[in-house]
């Protein structure tokens, strides 16, 4: 799996898609928990985490060129299930 790249000066939205994993009629409830390594800023001012249609969208800013960060997103569903997905994010000047 390739590691997505993010410029340290960019503020970008990222999405984690659970729609294929959710059972029919099951939804993401509450506020998803997003954890990021030090050096990244989660949801800078004016940006919020959103959950809709089985997908979680959040915003990341910052980072240091040459560093690789881990980002984790945990959800709870209307059926009481929880799941967490993680991915690595590489910071590089573009």
Summarize this structure as a short list of keywords or feature phrases:
94 residues; mainly beta; Immunoglobulin-like; 4-stranded mixed β-sheet; elongated
How is this structure best described in words?
By secondary structure, the protein is mainly β. It has one domain: Sandwich (Immunoglobulin-like). Helix content is 0%, strand content 55%. It contains no helices and 8 strands. It has strands at 5-6, 11-17, 28-36, 40-42, 50-52, 55-62, 68-77, 82-91. The chain has a 4-stranded mixed beta sheet, with no helix packed on it. Strands 2, 4, 5 and 6 form a 4-stranded antiparallel beta sheet that branches. The two termini are 20 Å apart.
Give the overall pLDDT as a whole number: 94
Uncertain segments are none
Q: Give Rg in angstroms.
A: 14 Å
Question: Which fold does the CATH topology refer to?
Answer: Immunoglobulin-like
**Major β-sheet annotation:** 4 strands, mixed
Kindly state the number of beta strands. Answer: 8
* Tally of helical segments: 0
CATH architecture: Sandwich
Query: What is the helix content?
Result: under 10%
String of helices and strands: EEEEEEEE
Which class in CATH terms? Mainly Beta
Ends distance: 20 Å
Spatial strand sequence of the major β-sheet:
1-8-7-3
Shape: elongated
